[in-house]
Write a structure and sequence with these properties.
Number of helices: 22
Oligomer: single chain
Distance between the termini: 71 Å
Radius of gyration: 29 Å
Mean pLDDT: 78
Number of domains: 4
CATH superfamily of the largest domain: HUPs
Strand content: 5-15%
Helix content: 40-55%
Structural class: alpha/beta
Number of strands: 17
Shape: flat
CATH architecture of the largest domain: 3-Layer(aba) Sandwich
Strand order of the largest sheet: 4-3-2-5-6-11-10-7-8-9
Length: 556
């Protein structure tokens, strides 16, 4: 029995693809905020290069304002409660609703029209009545536009804002590509364009769109693939604390841990590198030079770090990724990157399958047994494992995939998988590494116990990957963000060796709390160095605060 390769969840049109995104019909959300104005400037540059048309849209909620005013009438000051005065106020408000909001909308269009006129791009106007995000979604659902551009924040932006509610709601619901202006001081081309690549049709669609933008604006393109070799080390360590010996045997825990270690460290790294190799081939066919890089870490954090390191001006990513199902509206990595990166973001809906993948999907067949075997793979790797098998089959000229061929490819992905030594694993799998004092000092500054433990496990995994017997500062830094650590502008204190060693003897679950308490005590007493009597008094005070009973000599 044979069957065709099982679908990976890609829509039929992805077989031929619809990337790159057309720039001929652009819709821009207007509100005269700095971010909206930046979106207008950037998207107009692109539309001009494509002989496109820009349509500005500004919605004003006249009915909402009218309803709110009527709700407020009963609470107006006494001088407005006279019938003649109330009627006058109603007339004034009706004029504001009837003409005032329309004039405001017209002024927004006038300002945007000047930008389009200067660029030689035709400009059209839409001024619907209703809530902003709903009107934007109605407009993009008409099928009359190829790209929506809007600012990440509007007129309601306050300090600390990252994404406005209108932007967030629209991006989540938009069926077309969305360009989000996130930096009012940066133009596309001030830094490279970075493409997030995970091998999905939308990531390749994003790649093609990035090529098109790069040609139009003469910008360098970087393609980055990120995989997380640390997650399963954390997960299996956590599982090991709740599984008893008998449950571990049923679950075949030791073998599972070894399998995932090898799959993550070796196999997935190879698969994501293969995606980059395919991207390079697509670039060569398109006549575009690209820089590719494989980075390790939680994908959105690793890509964010890359964007910041290379001062990217635009990040282009698919709206959903390789693990998406039909019900998913936006991928987790895409959503996090939209919030976190400092550069402009282009969220792609178009798709593209590289020619090699198209041919493979159409011509290669699977035996029922091989298909069943690949479908037994864990959900998180099934799609990429299938891609690996198909690509290898095509490379070797096969058009029929058997279980033996699947085994051969999987063995190449997971070296040593046939030689799982359970006893060896039991001795070494979860043995915690030693930490340097400097590394301990950094991680102990993290107040959130859950975050602290997660970072500890990831740092240990990083140390193991480096074949280090000690966790060093270099193993921690990739996993710590500024928000994890206390404010560096606060008064600093210096720990001497003896009290720092004493701190390390405090159980890890309480160490961060004790550290903060000791430092606060020292600072309150006007000291900057933790040593001698002040250190002793601080530890005593910390212990009393945590357990307010008589402790005798007060030793921690």
């Amino acid at each position: 029995m044979v069957n065709l390769a099982v679908s990976t969840g890609t829509a039929d049109h992805a077989k031929t693809g619809n990337a790159p995104t057309s720039l001929s019909r652009v819709l821009v959300a207007l509100d005269q905020s700095d971010y909206a104005n930046q979106a207008m400037r950037e998207i107009t540059r692109l539309a001009a290069s494509a002989d496109g048309t820009v349509t500005g849209i500004h919605a004003y909620a006249a009915k909402l304002h009218d309803r709110r005013f009527k709700q407020m009438e009963g609470g107006l000051p006494e001088k407005y409660q006279r019938e003649s005065e109330m009627e006058h106020q109603r007339e004034v408000h009706e004029d504001l609703i009837g003409m005032g909001l329309g004039l405001i909308s017209d002024s927004y269009h006038d300002a945007a029209g000047l930008i389009s006129e200067k660029a030689g791009v035709p400009f059209r106007r839409l001024s619907p009545e209703g809530k902003n995000y709903a009107c934007l979604i109605d407009a993009v659902n008409t099928g009359n536009f190829d790209v929506l551009a809007l600012g990440s924040l509007g007129l309601g932006a306050v300090a600390g804002s990252t994404i406005g509610t209108v932007c967030e709601r629209v991006v989540r619901r938009s069926p077309i590509d969305v360009f989000v202006a996130k930096n009012t001081q940066t133009a596309i081309g001030d830094g490279p364009i970075v493409v997030g690549m995970d091998g999905s049709p939308k990531s390749f669609g994003a790649l093609k769109t990035a090529f098109d933008i790069a040609r139009r604006l003469d910008v360098a393109v970087h393609v980055v693939a990120a995989y997380d070799p640390y997650y399963h080390y954390v997960a299996f360590n956590k599982i090991s604390t709740v599984l008893d010996e008998e449950a571990g045997k049923v679950f075949r825990f030791k073998e599972q841990e070894q399998l995932h270690e090898e799959l993550i460290d070796e196999g997935i790294a190879k698969i994501y590198q293969a995606h980059l190799n395919v991207a390079r081939s697509v670039a060569e066919d398109a006549g575009v030079e690209i820089h590719t890089e494989l980075v390790a870490g939680k994908p959105y954090q690793a890509i964010r770090s890359y964007v910041e390191k290379h001062n990217a001006s635009l990040l282009v990513i698919g709206k959903t990724g390789v693990h998406a199902d039909d019900e998913l509206d936006i991928g987790g990595n895409t959503e996090n990157l939209l919030r976190m990166v400092p550069c402009h973001v282009w969220i792609g809906q178009t798709t593209f399958l590289p020619p090699t993948d198209v041919v493979a999907e159409e011509t290669i067949m699977w035996s029922d047994e091989a298909s069943e075997k690949i479908n037994r793979a864990p959900d998180f790797v099934r799609g990429i494992a299938r891609t690996a098998v198909i690509r290898q089959a095509q490379a070797q000229g096969h058009t029929f995939i058997t279980t033996r061929f699947v085994d051969t490819v999987m063995k190449a992905m997971m070296p040593g998988g046939d030689n799982v030594d359970g006893d060896k694993i039991s001795e070494q799998a979860f043995e915690r590494l030693q930490w340097s004092p400097e590394a301990n000092a950094i991680v102990d500054r993290i107040s959130d116990e859950t975050v602290r433990e997660n970072i500890r496990l990831r740092a240990e995994k990083s140390a193991r990957r480096d074949a280090s017997v000690l966790v060093l500062e270099v193993h921690i830094r990739p996993f710590i963000t500024e928000s994890d650590l206390p404010d560096d502008n606060a008064p600093n204190v210096t720990w001497r060796a003896a009290p720092l060693a004493r701190l390390q003897r405090v159980p890890e679950a309480f160490r961060g709390q004790v550290r903060a308490s000791v430092e606060a005590f020292v600072q309150e007493n006007g000291a900057t160095i933790i040593e001698g009597d002040i250190a002793e008094a601080a530890f005593v005070a910390s212990r009393k605060n945590m357990c307010p009973v008589d402790h005798g000599d007060g030793k921690s």
